[in-house]
Amino acid sequence: MWDGPTPSVVHISAPIGESLTPREVFLVTGEGKEPIRIEVLAHAFSRWPEDQLRPFVILDTVDNPFDRGRTLLLRNAFAARLFPEATRGVLAIGPYAREDLAAAVQALIAHMTGHISISELHSSFWEAQRNPAPALFTLDPDLPLWD
User: Among positive and negative, which fits the CA dihedral 74, 136, 97, 26?
Assistant: First the structure.
């Protein structure tokens, strides 16, 4: 677990992959290392303090220039499965080409100020970064971004 205060927002940036049997989506961690499955993240997030909202997760998938469309679909599948497990919401962004990544991250950070809701972050980021469209997974878009 973390030392110090528990974060309100968790940013995950990783390549995304899938297995065929059983069919599942996971985060790729590196050559020869175990992938990070949704269950591992859900377990970590379930240990949040009871007096604090569960984390809001920004899932930033790494670009696969050979199949951006498939990467986008895998991103959404991962976010949809992660969200109900132990988060208050997931904002799925990317994949961005290497030359566009810095601008996308700067736009995201610029919109994460003040007392805004997660839907306000989604809307303002979408205005700034239209392609690929960010996807928001939450039951209550009016929940605050920061706890």
Answer: negative
